[in-house]
């Protein structure tokens, strides 16, 4: 197992950025395989902060970084992110960065539609990041997307634009919006095309070559399993499959390449946007978790909802994603709590459940069953070995591990790369 696939096992924002950065310093290639610039990964390297949305985290360390076909790509967001990172001294070239030529594009009309729908939905809104992710995936599976490879054939784009605009004009009319300005869209595409095309290639082929040469590949998932379009809290989900299996289809390497599946798990729970959240705390404890954990979205700046650790959803995520081991993050946020609670099951209309049911109304109605543990007063921030942790913190980790039926491979104790306790090295497994 030379490769590692990293996925979020809750609702995203589990601290994947740091773990991916730590692993990517030892990988030969890092691949994004789903999502788009709705993701937000914060890396802290030698005190410098890098905020990534679309680019694979390996880019900061100069590791070969690849955007796979499963991603939806906003070319203008790509350019802005590359320019920002270049300004921070990160070198991004066609040597160390590649984009799948069969990647579907996010266009301004997708952003428009995302916003129009959310506004019209009022209190029933999904709470999307407003980046056009959902509409872009819809056009991809609806077979009317403009893809990266089309940018090299803009003179032959008319039939595709006909299909795309016919669809969007009808939707826009329903929102009292003017039709798509087709000429303006084409002009924008002509303008950005050379920039994107310098990185475009059949990445499945490049990855095949890299793999054959014995490279270690890191697949970098975005969002979390509870936001998966199949396995998540539907319809309050993103529009891609966020589970580990997507690493295979979203990169062009088969399932045998995915290797060690590392589920990133926060020591408590957070969620941004709308939708069910059984252990959410609407009180001063939730407030304290948010403050101690600096729980504000990297992409939208929105305040994250906070709650106790929910072992039921994490156990389910680990099962549906075939997680080999977890990385437990932000343990230090629980420092100083007198007592800590863990959700071990749900009560639903008099019945006890050991899983999250599929129906949205049931998901909203489940009541968490908690067990309580003494907390610890010492700090765990910066711990790099078990010996640095208070006994109660070790007890907490053991209990989490037992309840989710999945072993702990790493524990992260601060945003700094080296503040990590390594139990089992995913690359050496
Ligand atoms: P979309 O992906 O922008 O369509 O948003 C759909 C849902 O996924 C919303 O609840 C967003 O808040 C959530 N979401 C999307 N990306 C992320 C992420 O990177 N972290 C956490 N939540 C996300």
Characterization of this structure:
- The chain has helices at residues 16-24, 75-87, 108-121, 133-141, 158-174, 182-197, 203-212, 246-249, 284-292, 311-320, 360-365, 391-404; strands at residues 4-8, 29-32, 41-45, 48-52, 64-67, 72-73, 97-100, 104-105, 200-201, 217-220, 260-266, 269-271, 305-307, 309-310, 325-329, 339-348, 351-353, 367-374, 408-412, 420-422.
- It is built from 12 helices and 20 strands.
- The termini are close together.
- The mean pLDDT is 95.
- It has 3 domains: 4-100 and 199-260, 3-Layer(aba) Sandwich (Adenylosuccinate Synthetase, Chain A, domain 1); 104-196, Adenylosuccinate Synthetase, subunit A, domain 2 (Orthogonal Bundle); 265-428, Adenylosuccinate Synthetase, subunit A, domain 3 (Adenylosuccinate Synthetase, Chain A, domain 3, Alpha-Beta Complex).
- The strands form 5 sheets. Strands 9-7-5-2-10-1-11-15-19-20 form a 10-stranded mixed beta sheet, with helices on both faces.
- The structure holds inosinic acid.
Which regions are unreliable across 5 or more consecutive residues at pLDDT < 50?
Answer: none
- Report the CATH architecture of the largest domain: Alpha-Beta Complex
Oligomer: single chain
Could you say which overall geometry the principal axes of the C-alpha atoms support?
globular
Bound molecules: inosinic acid
**Which structural class do you get from the secondary structure elements?**
alpha/beta
Strand order of the largest sheet: 9-7-5-2-10-1-11-15-19-20
CATH third-level topology of the largest domain: Adenylosuccinate Synthetase, Chain A, domain 3
The CATH class of the largest domain is identified as Alpha Beta
- Estimated radius of gyration: 22 Å
Q: Tally the helices.
A: 12
* Major sheet size, sense and barrel closure: 10 strands, mixed
The CATH homologous superfamily of the largest domain is named: Adenylosuccinate Synthetase, subunit A, domain 3
Percentage of residues assigned to helices:
25-40%
What number of structural domains do the residues give?
3
User: How large a portion of the residues is in β-strands, by DSSP E?
Assistant: 15-25%
What is the first-to-last residue Cα distance?
Answer: 6 Å
Instruction: Give a count of the beta strands, DSSP E runs of length 2 or more.
Output: 20
């Amino acid at each position: 197992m030379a490769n590692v696939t990293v996925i979020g096992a809750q609702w995203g924002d589990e601290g994947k950025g740091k773990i991916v950065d730590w692993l990517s310093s030892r990988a030969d290639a890092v691949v994004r395989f789903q999502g788009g610039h709705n993701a937000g990964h914060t890396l802290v390297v030698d005190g410098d902060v890098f905020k990534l949305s679309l680019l694979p985290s390996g880019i900061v360390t100069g590791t070969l970084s690849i955007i796979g076909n499963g991603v939806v790509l906003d070319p203008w967001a790509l350019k802005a992110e590359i320019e920002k990172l270049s300004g921070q001294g990160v070198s991004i070239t066609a040597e160390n960065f590649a984009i799948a030529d069969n990647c579907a594009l996010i266009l301004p009309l997708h952003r428009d539609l995302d916003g129009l729908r959310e506004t019209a939905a009022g209190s029933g809104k999904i709470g999307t990041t407003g980046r056009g992710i959902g509409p872009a995936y819809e056009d991809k599976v609806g077979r009317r997307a403009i893809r990266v490879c089309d940018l090299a054939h803009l003179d032959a784009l008319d039939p595709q634009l006909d299909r795309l605009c016919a669809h969007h004009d009808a939707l826009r009319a329903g929102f009292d919006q003017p039709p798509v300005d087709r000429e303006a869209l084409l002009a924008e595409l002509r303008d950005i095309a050379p920039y994107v095309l310098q990185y475009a290639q059949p990445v499945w082929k490049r990855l095949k070559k890299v793999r054959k040469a014995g490279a270690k590949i890191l697949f970098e998932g975005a969002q979390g399993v509870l936001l998966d379009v199949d396995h998540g809290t539907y319809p309050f989900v993103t529009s891609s499959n966020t589970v580990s299996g997507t690493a295979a289809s979203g990169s062009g390497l088969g399932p045998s390449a995915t290797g060690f599946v590392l589920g990133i798990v926060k020591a408590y729970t957070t969620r941004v946007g709308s939708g069910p959240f059984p252990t959410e705390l609407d009180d001063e404890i939730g407030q304290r978790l948010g403050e101690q954990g600096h729980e504000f979205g990297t992409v939208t700046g929105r305040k994250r909802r906070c709650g106790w650790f929910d072992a039921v959803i994490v156990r389910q995520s680990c099962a549906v994603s075939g997680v080999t081991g977890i990385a437990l993050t932000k343990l230090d946020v629980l420092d100083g709590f007198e007592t800590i609670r863990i959700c071990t099951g749900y009560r639903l209309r008099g019945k006890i459940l050991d899983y999250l049911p599929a129906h949205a109304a049931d998901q909203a109605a489940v009541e968490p069953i908690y067990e309580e543990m003494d907390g610890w007063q010492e700090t765990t921030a910066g711990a790099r070995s078990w010996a640095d942790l208070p006994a109660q913190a070790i007890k907490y980790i053991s209990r989490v591990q037992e309840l989710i039926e999945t072993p702990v491979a790493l524990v992260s104790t601060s945003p700094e790369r080296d503040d990590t306790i390594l139990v089992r090295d995913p690359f050496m497994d």
